[in-house]
Design brief:
The complex is a heterodimer.
Chain A (H helix, E strand, L loop, with lengths): L6 H12 L15 E5 L7 E7 L4 E12 L14 E8 L13 H16 L16 H6 L19 E3 L3 E13 L4 H15 L1 E3 L1 E7 L2 E6 L6 E3 L8 E8 L2 E4 L3 H6 L2 E7 L5 E7 L6 H38 L13
Parallel strand pairs in A: 4-6
Antiparallel strand pairs in A: 1-2, 2-3, 3-6, 5-6, 7-10, 8-9, 11-12, 11-13, 13-14
Chain B lengths: L45 E5 L7 E7 L2 E12 L12 E8 L14 H14 L11 E11 L3 H18 L9 E8 L17 E4 L3 H4 L2 E10 L4 E11 L1 H36 L1
Parallel strand pairs in B: 4-5
Antiparallel strand pairs in B: 1-2, 2-3, 3-5, 6-7, 6-8, 8-9
Chain lengths: ~325, ~280
């Protein structure tokens, strides 16, 4: 990960982008080749590894654990919801700049962005929309009423609840950056989507012991597991880098150094925007901002389609191999 | 454990308030704002004053009803930190700190991840406006203390506004002032649902939402904008929304930023006048 760029090199990149040809032969709206693999870490509930051809390598793992629900004391919200806790860590081995506390700021920025895009739970007291929920405590148990507004993260948090007001599943989504080749955020989100698709949560059996007492049992049958509800609606993000008067996607590290301003656009499959954040130290004109949002949106949607197709293909081929009794070979880490 | 400080309780819980029987909590169903005097596009009145912190090179204090924060700017001064490589550009560091008593729940004295992120975002929002290229080998420090927070979005946009006024007050060369503005998308009618196919009403955009309104928000946006250069220096949106809502709210925010700009102008002119009378 270089930290400085010479004026000559900057000029070369700038002029190239103006002519719609980039240093590696791509055009402005082109992505590099992405390698994706799921189910790479056996200890997790779901995992995925994403490699972008230029060098970015991200490993995302999802671990499902049981914990207490988090309730807002004022609105009483959250009693029937599970949680998603995100974290991003840049491994010191990925770049010399990540050594020691060097990656702290980047880690924090990426972690906060990821949690904002994934665990934004929508309006706090969404129960106000259903007409009969005047007594809020009883309505929490009746989570069968289809929630009208799911959060930006897409994942149905109510389905992660085991006993309303007491226990829920907590999904820990941890992304580990193993190698840095630009465009981290997109890679992390692709990896997260794939890892959530790979995630299987054990089923639970709740017993009512009477007078408000509940007990539950986690079924430890490997076959009897659930997928994460609402995973199709998870957003994917597209990072647009404004260089000169143009904008590009999937920037390489050198292009990132020339970037005046970058815009991260999170979008879901139906084209709704789930988050927006500007980065870097430059400005964008409002008209260009709207144009960038629009192109990020269309690009994100096509990216989701391609990603889903490749996840499905991999899952099918794995299943076919298992049925035939052949061992499933994974490429593993750092594989090209 | 920090032994120098009196430790507060480890866990803090907002007090349970018993409301009178006839008390009704505000819900967006009424299609009115929490503050009934305001229209959806109205902001709260802004009080902005410079020069209230004597020690700082420049300072500003901003109040939007219950959102109150102070900002102090120190510098430009030589970069002190050892190990810092030579930089041809000035170094801007921002620090935003919520006072422990500023929110409903007590906040820790230590900087939490959210504060760290907001500080980073603030740096990104302000640096396009400052002529950092004129200040090699020097550093500018911006400190913000939130005294009272009434909604995170409004608090953050107020921080941007106050910081840029304080920077101007410190006499640091800038291209333009940065005004910050926030908006929330709130569903005031039946929400769009995929299954029932009910009548859909797009969420309403409430400018400068307060805490009570933020609780019902579907999403929110914070925009930092330089009015005379017509440039957006930062945008932060969370929650789900249609593209049309976003473009609409960006327009609304730009409009509101122009209004805030007038207030900022006024505050700076006042400070100049005060200086003149002192001489």
């Amino acid at each position: 990960m270089p930290s400085l760029i010479s004026p000559a090199e900057r000029d070369y990149i700038l002029k190239g982008i103006e002519c719609n040809i980039r240093a590696d032969g791509r055009q402005r709206p082109d992505y590099r080749e992405v390698t994706l693999e799921t189910g790479v870490v056996s200890q997790t509930s779901g995992s995925a590894r994403v490699r972008i051809a230029g060098g970015t390598d991200v490993l995302v793992s999802v671990k499902a654990e049981i914990g207490p629900v988090l309730v807002d004391p004022e609105t009483g919200d959250g009693a029937d919801k599970g949680q998603i806790i995100c974290s991003v860590e840049c491994a010191p081995s990925a770049s010399q700049q990540f050594e020691g506390r060097g990656a702290d700021e980047l880690n924090n920025e990426l972690t906060q962005m990821m949690s904002r895009f994934l665990s934004h739970s929508g309006p706090a007291a969404s129960s106000f929309l259903s007409t009969t929920s005047s007594s809020s405590s009883s309505s929490t148990a009746a989570s069968t009423t289809a929630k009208t507004t799911s959060g930006a993260g897409g994942i149905n948090l109510s389905k992660l609840c085991i006993i309303p007001g007491q226990q829920c599943w907590i999904l820990y989504v941890d992304a580990l950056v193993l190698d840095y080749g630009g465009n981290l955020m997109d890679a992390i989100f692709m990896g997260t989507r794939a890892a959530i698709y790979d995630t299987r949560i054990p089923k639970t059996e709740v017993q009512d012991l009477g007078d408000g007492q509940f007990e539950f049992e986690v079924l430890d049958d490997a076959e009897d597991t659930e997928e994460v509800a609402g995973r199709e609606d998870m957003p994917l993000c597209v990072t647009l880098n404004k260089i000169g008067a143009r904008h590009i996607v999937d920037a390489s590290p050198l292009e990132e150094l020339c970037t005046e301003a970058k815009l991260v656009v999170a979008v879901n499959r139906s084209g709704e925007l789930c988050g927006l954040q500007k980065g870097h130290e430059g400005g964008i004109e409002p008209s260009l901002l709207l144009e960038m949002i629009q192109s990020g949106k269309t690009m994100g949607q096509s990216l989701i389609k391609q990603l889903d197709a490749s996840i499905k293909k991999e899952a099918e081929s794995d299943l076919a191999k298992r049925q035939r009794g052949e061992p499933v070979h994974k490429l593993g880490f750092f594989a090209q | 454990m920090d032994r120098k400080r009196v430790a507060g309780p480890e866990l803090s819980v907002a007090p349970l308030i018993e409301y009178p029987v006839d008390h009704k909590r505000w819900t967006p169903q009424q299609e009115k704002r929490h503050d009934s005097k305001r229209q959806p596009e109205d902001m709260r009145p802004i009080y902005l004053k410079t020069g209230l912190i004597g020690q700082a090179s420049g300072s500003a204090y901003i109040e939007l009803e219950k959102t109150k924060l102070a900002c102090g700017v120190y510098g430009p001064k030589p970069v002190k930190r050892i190990g810092q490589t030579f930089s041809g550009r000035g170094l801007l560091t921002c620090e935003i700190k919520f006072a422990t008593f500023s929110c409903a729940k007590r906040r820790n004295q230590m900087r939490d991840p959210q504060e760290k992120e907001l500080s980073q975002i603030l740096t990104q929002a302000l640096s396009p406006a400052i002529r950092l290229d004129l200040l090699p080998k020097s550093a500018i420090e911006v400190y913000i203390t939130v005294l009272e927070s009434d909604g995170l979005g409004s608090c953050f946009s107020a921080a941007i506004t106050a910081a840029s006024v304080a920077l101007a007050h410190a006499g640091i060369e800038m291209l333009d002032l940065v005004a910050g503005c926030s908006a929330s998308y709130i569903q005031t009618g039946p929400a769009r649902s995929i299954s029932s196919g009910a009548e859909s009403i797009p969420p309403q955009i409430f400018m400068d939402a307060d805490l009570e309104e933020e609780k019902y928000e579907q999403g929110s946006i914070v925009l930092a904008y330089m009015p005379s250069l017509n440039e957006v220096t930062h945008v932060l949106q969370s929650g789900k929304a249609e593209g049309s809502i976003i473009s609409q709210s960006v327009e609304h925010c730009v409009e509101a930023c122009n209004k805030i700009y007038a207030v900022m102008h006024h505050a700076l002119l006042e400070s100049v006048k005060e200086n003149q009378t002192q001489l």
